[in-house]
Amino acid sequence: xGYNPQRKFKARPTDYIVLAIGxxxxxxxxxxxxxx
Length: 36
Hints:
Elements: H1 13-35
C-alpha cells in the first residue's frame, strides 16, 4: 500500500470506470436534489 509520488501515473481501464461511476453518481444526486 506504499504510495510513490515519483511514479508515473498510468491510468488503467478500471480507473476510468471508477471515475465514470463517481461522476454519474454525483450527477444523479444533483438531479435528484433538484427534482425532489
